[in-house]
Amino acid sequence: MVDRYWITFFVLLSCLVGVLDASAGDADPLYRACVGQCKKTGCVGETCFPHCKFSSDGASLDGPWYMQEPLYLQWKQWDCLSDCRYNCMLNREKEMASLGHGPVKYHGKWPFKRLYGFQEPVSVALSALNLVMHFHGWLSFFILMYYKLPLGLDKKRYYAFTSLWHIYGLLSMNAWFWSAVFHSRDVDLTEKLDYSSAIALLGYSLILAILRSFNVRIEAARVMVSAPLLAFITTHILYLNNYQMDYGWNMKVCLVMAVSQLLIWAIWAGVTHHPSRWKLWVVVVGGGLAMLLEIYDFPPYQGFVDAHALWHATTIPLTYIWWSFIKDDAEFSTAKLLKKMK
Ligand SMILES: [Zn+2]
């Protein structure tokens, strides 16, 4: 059983590495020439962009002095580059389509159509819905813990994982917030924030999977398990942000963390007598299938819905079931402890 997991895992890994290497669009010399020209003139064909007005030394031509601060200039240059890339991409895609060629990726992303300035409107909306689902789940967990379940002596809660799930809720909402921002506008800063929050969430939920499934309650044991993982996650985030944004390496790290926690929950669901273990199964199987969408990455339908957007859609019902499992777990563990004490 475990062997089969590892084989699947390595097949998935090699597929992902293959997919990530291919970004044919921005290697195209015609596209490169168009972007290079646009950065100089601020125009693609007839369309010109106000963000692209720089003087030869790189300072802004118009606007008061306080608008010429470096940070503002950086934003402006990002916006200029992003507009140039977007319009060159649309032009190239139109030409390619008229020659009968399908869409290709640019800078690791499919050609999306913008809507009201949003780069990937469907992914933005779905990220926001994920955020809402996590808020709803976390809030109902909060109400259960603080208003419904009984407290023990010296006001201690019977459920030993309460604060760990609170942190999980906060990290989830943070990650989906930055995901929505990143899909609205893909620039260096938003990309780093999105990646860092997603890695933090993924790493933390791996720690949580280990602590809960092995029922680690002793503080010292918890520290021993989580310290090396926390150190690795922190180093990984710092490496991506300050040294090199290595997409291939990051994908491997994320995949290993995701597959190992799915495995941990799957094995636990297989051996435990937890009354809500079927919810675990739904999330593990659903999460595994959803990961396939990231691997069989198809171009956006009508320029809007791609595999990644669908992946964000599948996590919405899974989030609902997941929080419902967490609440069941809190109730079940409390009831079990109370029964033992009687
Ligand atoms: Zn996303």
Primary descriptors:
Rhopdopsin 7-helix transmembrane proteins, binds zinc ion, 2 domains, single chain, two-stranded antiparallel ribbon, mainly alpha, 342 residues, Post-GPI attachment to proteins factor 3
Top CATH class of the largest domain = Mainly Alpha
Question: What form results from the Cα inertia axes?
Answer: elongated
Task: Specify the biggest β-sheet.
Answer: 2 strands, antiparallel
Can you count the beta strands?
A: 2
Q: From the coordinates shown, what is the CATH architecture of the largest domain? A: Up-down Bundle
- Span of the ends, CA to CA: 40 Å
Number of domains as seen in the coordinates: 2
What Rg, in angstroms, do the CA atoms define? 24 Å
Structural class: mainly alpha
Q: What is the fold named in CATH at topology level of the largest domain?
A: Rhopdopsin 7-helix transmembrane proteins
Average pLDDT reading: 82
Elements, N to C (H/E): HHEEHHHHHHHH
pLDDT below 50 for ≥5 consecutive residues: which ranges? 15-22, 55-61
**Helix count?**
10
Instruction: Kindly estimate the percentage of residues that lie in beta strands according to DSSP.
Output: under 5%
Bound molecules: zinc ion
Strand order of the largest sheet: 1-2
